[in-house]
Fold this protein.
Amino acid sequence: PRQGIIARYRDWLPVPPGAEPITLGEGDTPLIRADRLLEQLPPDRRPPGLFLKFEGANPTGSFKDRGMTMALTCARARGAQAVICASTGNTAAAAAAYAARAGMECWLVLPAGGVAAGKVGQAVACGARILPVRGSFDDALAAVRQVVTERPDLVLVNSLNPDRLEGQKTAAFEVVDQLAARGEDEPAAVFLPVGNGGNITAYHMGFATYATAGRLGRLPRLYGVQAEGAAPLVRGRPVDQPQTVASAIRIGRPVYGDRALAAVRETGGRVLAVSDEEILAAQRLLARLEGVFVEPASAASVAGLLKLARGNEPGWEVPEGPVVCVLTGHGLKDVDTALRAARSGDAGSADLAALEAEALEP
Ligand SMILES: Cc1ncc(COP(=O)(O)O)c(/C=C/C(=O)C(=O)O)c1O
């Protein structure tokens, strides 16, 4: 039964004794085999298996639920009444849902006009208080730091909150357990989209924890993929005006930049950037070939794999074991972008395009 990640992994998590989990049954998301997508890779550069960790199947539609169940459970155990965070959207949607469930107040600082409608809808529906900030996510995060000094009773549930990474590391546990349960080899490489760098850091923590406990022979190479217009880790410096269609990773000053780079370096992986066109092409391939509809930022992980495997980038050694692409958020979060991409020249035949255009009319 879907009992949530704290119930399933309590022994591996720093949950205060006696704390009653605040949960929506998050975690235990599908690990989907993607053979048709694998065929898109050149035969001589193809790993033995390709799997998709579909985090869009979480209760609020993104991997953020794993971190929020931990953050809200721990906050309430410490007597907090209200939480606050800055967000590009999915953290906000998850914080709003889990705070509502806990009967706690939720304050969200969002970049005005920079958040996908689905996520704003979730946060508003759950009764969160929204403070729009003119500027980017990075400006919103700076604003939150200011608010917290004026209202110390507000618990910060941003990526800075360590409880969140603890919850997010359970996805790495699941990847190892799910591959083993299917008789597959251990994961050889894992691709993730990178914004603040919290999630790739959490996967590194999870794999390292399992390795120390003897449940994993060696850590998979971690590949962090950023959008070309928002790639501070690839460029080696902050990006002042991050630009990308993948609004979830439109971040110029990653909070966990150093730890994300350490995770990549220590596992023999790398960071790389992909264009918005490559992201949207990967989003289409996932939906058309495998029936998996994800928001643009999630597709960056697949775009990164395609780019390395197709040889556009040097330094790709074909992994000798299964490759996992983490799909971090559901496509319904940002359906407008998918519709716009579909309208702007479908690769199908003219009459199909005409039919689709007709179908797409609002
Ligand atoms: C779909 C999706 N994919 C990837 C990322 C990047 O993860 P990190 O590298 O841990 O930041 C996010 C992040 C979103 C926020 O940062 C937020 O919601 O404020 C996301 O929503």
Q: What stands out?
A: The chain has a mean pLDDT of 94. The longest strand covers residues 105-111. Strands lie at 31-33, 50-54, 82-86, 105-111, 129-133, 154-156, 189-193, 221-227, 270-274, 323-327. Residues 198-212 form the longest helix (15 residues).
